[in-house]
UniProtKB/TrEMBL annotation:
Protein known as: Uncharacterized protein
The keyword Amino-acid biosynthesis is assigned to this record: no
Membrane topology category: Multi-pass membrane protein
Keyword check for Thylakoid: no
GO CC field: cytoplasm; membrane
InterPro entries in the cross-refs: AQP11/12_channel, Aquaporin-like
An example Gene Ontology molecular-function term: channel activity
Main subcellular localisation: membrane
Keywords: Membrane, Transmembrane, Transmembrane helix
Length: 216
């Protein structure tokens, strides 16, 4: 849940910088809020199953406080916009677009988990390879294991497409097309994204620091 909230907040900040204020930005924020809501509530089910309803209620209470602080005008719920339409505050077109954005965010969040996790895994490996710390293999293994555990309840954490196909192809619960989208397109897309992302100055400074200064 913490990872989902952190990723959603990062996406909101990026949206605020990249997308101009207006309807398009509102649609992005609705999609992000819906994705965060669905991802966190999926985890809440696991909390309830393992730790009981009382613990579930505590986490839900904390999440609702967090969402109230960071969502802004986004609601991740279609009927609030329908109420605004009835009251004359918005148009049917805007309601339809925001509902569509919410659906896309909610339905696609589990597809993106594989790509994002693979991206993070590859960025960590690239950073360790460049920095060359003494215990790099141990650190890399720890990061990889942590990401697998974080993605376990979403996709099983199979970041290697070959391994995923060997173990999961034909299993019940998803279609073959969904398997290809999640385990092949998601993982390979995340890995390919790590190449240009790792070259961004901001990302490099964050992960490996000022390498030029170190060389001098």
């Amino acid at each position: 849940m913490g990872l989902s909230c952190a990723l959603a907040q990062t996406a909101r900040k990026l949206s605020g910088r990249v997308v101009k204020e207006g309807l398009v930005q509102e649609l992005f924020l609705e999609a992000i809020a819906a994705a965060e809501l669905c991802a966190c509530c999926f985890e809440l089910i696991i909390v309830a199953d393992n730790f009981g309803v009382a613990t579930y209620a505590i986490f839900l209470f904390l999440l609702t406080i967090w969402w109230a602080q960071v969502w802004g005008d986004a609601t991740a719920c279609p009927y609030t916009h329908m109420e605004d339409m009835v009251e004359g505050k918005t148009s049917p077109r805007n309601v339809a677009l925001k509902t569509w954005a919410q659906l896309m965010g909610g339905c696609c969040v589990f597809r993106f988990v594989q790509g994002i996790a693979t991206l993070l895994c590859r960025l960590a490996s690239k950073s360790l390879s460049e920095l060359g710390p003494k215990h790099a293999p141990l650190i890399d293994s720890f990061i990889g294991t942590s990401l697998v555990v974080a993605a376990f309840n979403f996709s099983g954490g199979y970041f290697n497409p070959v391994l995923a196909t060997a173990l999961k192809w034909g299993c019940s619960g998803h279609t073959n097309i969904e398997h290809i989208i999640v385990y092949w397109i998601g993982s390979c897309g995340g890995a390919l994204m790590s190449v240009p992302v790792f070259k961004l100055p901001t990302v490099r400074n964050l992960l490996v620091g000022d390498t030029k200064a170190k060389e001098e």
